Every structure is written in C-alpha cells, then in structure tokens.
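# nightly structure sweep
# worker-07 picked up a monomer target from the shared queue
# config: single-sequence mode, recycle default, output format = structure tokens
# input follows
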Amino acid sequence: MTMLDGKRILITGGAGGVGRAVAERMLAAGGRVLLSDREDAALRELAERLGSSGGEIATATVELSDPAGPARLFQRVDEWLGGLDILVACAGVGSGPLSEMDDAGWRHVIDSNLVSYVACTKGAVERIKAGGTREGMIILVGSISVHIKAVGESVYNAAKGGVASFAETLRKELIPDGIRLTLIEPGAIASSMQPFPPEERQRMMEDNKLLPPAQVAEAILFAATRPAGVDVVTLRIEPLDQKIY
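# output follows
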C-alpha cells in the first residue's frame, strides 16, 4: 500500500491509542512520520517498535499546552521532515466538571485541546504553502461530545466546540490554496482518556460501548487518501451504543 508514498506527516498525540494506530497505518501506506507527544519514554518505545517493521519514523517530545511547545515542534518538523504535507492533530486531555477544577486545570484543558490545535494548524499551513504542492491536508480530531453536551463535560466541550468551528471556517479559507481540511468527530474511544481500567475498556469495546482506536485511525486514513479535489469535510464515527448523557 503506497497511497501516501513519500508524504511528510506530523501526528500530535502520537503515543495515544488513536495516534499509535494512525502512525502504523500511515507508515504502511508509505508516509514519513514524525510522532509528537509529551511522554518521551512511551513515544520512543512506540517509534522503535513501528520502525522495526520498516518505514521512516522519528519523534518529538513536546508539551503542546506550553506556549513555546508548538514552535519547538515545528523546528523538529523543519529539521527532520524538511517540510510538511499532512498534519493529524489528535493530542488532548480529558476534563471534569468546571466546579471541580481550579483555574490552572481548566486552562490546561483549553490550551491542550484547542489552543494547541490552532497553533499546530498555523505551523502546518505555513509549511504546506511553502512547499507549493497544493495537495496538503489538515486532519483535526474533534469529538461528538459537542453534539451530545453531556453533564460534566462543559470545559472539554468548550475546547472541542472551538475546534469544530475553527475547522469548519478555516476549511473555506484554505480552498484557494488547494489545502484540504477534515474534522473527525469520534464518539467514546477505548483509550486511556476513559476513566476505566484496561480490562473494563476492553469489555466495553466488545459490547460496542467504546470505539476501537483502530477504527478511528481507519477513518483518518480514509480522509487522508482521497484524491486531490475530494474533501471529506466532517466524518462522525461512534460506537453502536454511544452514551448520550
């Protein structure tokens, strides 16, 4: 499979369940992949495992909620990838109810889940334009939580709602440059963001209450491999028995 042959790809949140699955598929499709996350040991272990099967992969350990984080990340992009064709932004953190969070806590959620997306998208667009290929792509992982509006997720939804509005508006702004932008809106995913132990997540996944990360990765790969001129605007994917309250 060579659908992404030679494409320079940045994946944020690369050590998470979805990031891992996306990296695996994009490497198999011929992409050159730079994985970014805040957890250095997990990131390096993953890169070594995926790299052992062939393909070009490197890492960048960056805290994207830090205002200086995106600049450090894109310095690594320039050094190792030498430009960019595709950004997959799936970094993020969970959140509790606003009344249970201090100011530092809710600001961290907004910075991680929204501000970092804007900053990374800006860096990606600048490099895609500089490359002059007119075939670049931005894929932002949002959440269906903005449609469900479950109790206790107000801060998280504020961030993900911002991502959705940002994506839907910026997509139109990028059309003259030939850059496509896709918003992926997954339901509940069987990842470490869920407040359940691994064995419980596995059971819920088998009961169709949580999405396998691999299925979200397949949706991302589908969007990334459409022909130029075909734009997957928004793709919503959820488990059959998605919680709605």
